[in-house]
TrEMBL record:
UniProt xrefs under PANTHER family: L-AMINO ACID N-ACETYLTRANSFERASE
PROSITE patterns on file: GNAT
Molecular function terms, GO-annotated: acyltransferase activity
Enzyme class name: transferase
Record-linked InterPro entries: Acyl_CoA_acyltransferase, GNAT_dom, MshD_Acetyltransferase
Domain N-acetyltransferase: 1-156
Keywords: Acyltransferase, Transferase
Lineage: Bacteria, Bacillati, Bacillota, Bacilli, Bacillales
Organism: Sporosarcina soli
Listed name of the protein: GNAT family N-acetyltransferase
E.C. number: 2.3.-.-
Statement: the UniProt record of this protein carries the keyword Transferase: yes
Acyltransferase recorded as keyword: yes
Length: 164
């Protein structure tokens, strides 16, 4: 089941983010940097702000949150950004990511395009986005919590762009 996040879900989202990050980035991003990032961006205050400023969907299995996605509202250009999508490792490859993605698209049906940024070394994440139909736009270096990383920028065309 896919539903909107409530404040009661904060502790579950924090757990999902921490466990997924640890599994995904264990050989890519040092554990201390992961911890700093999760502690900062998934604090209770930041989660409440995220629910206020973005859309956050929860994937549930038998009443237990096992994944989530957050995305911005459509801006004046018709663009949105998928800011996070995490599924607990033991539930990956079970269709929950695709369900979250389809629910996101339903909520953004009047948008033009959806962007996502993912660490270029995150092969599982990149394969998922490519399977859903995202197109790679760019790979660039940036600073992540003091660590240089390569980031892959993808776009999913919700509405076919009109060429003028």
């Amino acid at each position: 089941m896919i539903r909107h996040m409530t404040t009661k879900d904060c502790v579950h989202v924090q757990h999902i983010a921490r466990k997924t990050w640890n599994a995904t980035y264990q050989d890519i991003i040092p554990e201390e940097i992961q911890k700093q990032f999760i502690d900062r961006f998934y604090s209770h205050a930041m989660m409440e702000k995220r629910m206020e400023k973005t859309n956050v969907l929860i994937a549930e299995m038998q009443g237990l949150p096992i994944g989530f996605a957050s995305f911005t509202r459509k801006d004046e250009d018709g663009d949105s950004e998928l800011t996070a999508m995490y599924i607990l490792p033991e539930y990956q490859q079970a269709g929950y990511g695709e369900k979250l993605f389809k629910s996101t698209l339903t909520m953004l049906q009047d948008a033009q395009q959806l962007f996502v940024y993912v660490d270029a070394r995150n092969a599982i994440g990149r394969a998922f986005y490519e399977k859903q139909g995202f197109e790679l736009l760019d790979v660039f270096e940036e600073d992540f919590q003091g660590l240089p990383v390569l980031t892959a920028q993808y776009v999913y065309y919700i509405q076919t762009p009109v060429l003028v």
